[in-house]
Structures are given as structure tokens and as C-alpha cells.
Write a structure and sequence with these properties.
By secondary structure, the chain is α+β, with helices and mostly antiparallel strands. It has a single domain (2-116), classed as Winged helix-like DNA-binding domain superfamily/Winged helix DNA-binding domain (Arc Repressor Mutant, subunit A, Orthogonal Bundle). Helices cover 52% and strands 14% of the residues. It contains 5 helices and 5 strands, in the order E-H-E-H-H-E-E-H-E-H. A 3-stranded antiparallel beta sheet has the order 2-4-3. A two-stranded antiparallel ribbon has the order 1-5. A hairpin with a 2-residue loop joins strand 3 and strand 4. The chain is elongated.
């Protein structure tokens, strides 16, 4: 029996979900600084390693506008068609204030948890953790009449 590590796809999926969850907050932070064109918002997110594609940004901007957290205005552009500039509304500012408070509380709680963990960031091997006896055991390397998922080596090759 071996302990199964999470697959790399799980890490990528979790990472993507976490990023999506904070995009709204980050967009409001950007717009709190100044009115912005969508390309500027995208660039700011990319500059901070919150890479997002237009197909993700535009629906989010539309939803934020529908919820009256932001508004936009069209402005002439000497180098092409008019541009839509987004601006934070009063309701958006109040929502940003609430999100900021929640973010700080969560960040502080997580940092406190990290500090209180003696071996952070290197966790103890799963088998050595208190209360893990028999939990999350991987039987895939044992003989499986149904075909199973392969040996540890085969599974590692897939990661």
C-alpha cells in the first residue's frame, strides 16, 4: 500500500479556481486606482501573474456592470475605434471595501496557520501525521482483478 499524492492536474485545477475566485476583487482594485480600458485591466492582471484571457474578463466585467459595481463610458481613440473605459461605482467601492476586509481576515488567518505549523512549508510525510492511520491509502499497486490504475511507476509517468 502506498499513499497517493494529488495529481498535477489537481494542482492546476485548484490554482485556476483560486485565481478565478480573486479576479473580481483584483479588477475592483484596479478600477479603484483609475478608470481603465479592458486591455489595461488584462495587462495589469498579467503583470501580477493573474493571467487571464479576454474570454474570461469580458463576462466578468459584464456581470460586475449588471450588478452595478462598475460602469463604463466610450471615449474616442485617435489610433482606432472608440474605447470602452470602465470605472468603479459607489456600490462597487462599498463592495471592494467589504471584499478587502474579508481578504485581509483570510490572509491573516492563513499566515497565522502557517506560522503555527512548525514544519511549514515542508509537511511531514502523510504516514507520520497524527490520525492518518489507514486514511487515503492507495491500493492501485496491488493486484486488482478489475484492471486497476497501474503501478506507482506507471502512475508517476502520468504525472
Amino acid at each position: 500500500m502506498t499513499v497517493t499524492p494529488p495529481r498535477r492536474e489537481s494542482f492546476a485545477k485548484n490554482n485556476a479556481q483560486m485565481r478565478k475566485g480573486i479576479l473580481e476583487y483584483c479588477i475592483l482594485l484596479i478600477l479603484n486606482q483609475k478608470r481603465s480600458y479592458s486591455a489595461d485591466i488584462l495587462q495589469s492582471l498579467k503583470d501580477h501573474n493573474l493571467i487571464v484571457v479576454e474570454g474570461t474578463l469580458y463576462p466578468l466585467l459584464s456581470r460586475l456592470r449588471k450588478d452595478k459595481f462598475l460602469d463604463y463610458s466610450w471615449e474616442e481613440n485617435t489610433q482606432g475605434p472608440p474605447r470602452k473605459y470602465y470605472v468603479l461605482t459607489e456600490k462597487g467601492y462599498r463592495w471592494l471595501t467589504e471584499l478587502s476586509s474579508t481578504w485581509r481576515e483570510m490572509r491573516d488567518a492563513i499566515l497565522d496557520q502557517e506560522r503555527s505549523t512548525d514544519n511549514f512549508p515542508a509537511p511531514a510525510p502523510f504516514e507520520q501525521r497524527e490520525g492518518t492511520e489507514g486514511a487515503f491509502i492507495d491500493h492501485r499497486d496491488e493486484e486488482d482483478p478489475e484492471g486497476g490504475f497501474g503501478t506507482d511507476e506507471e502512475r508517476d509517468d502520468q504525472l
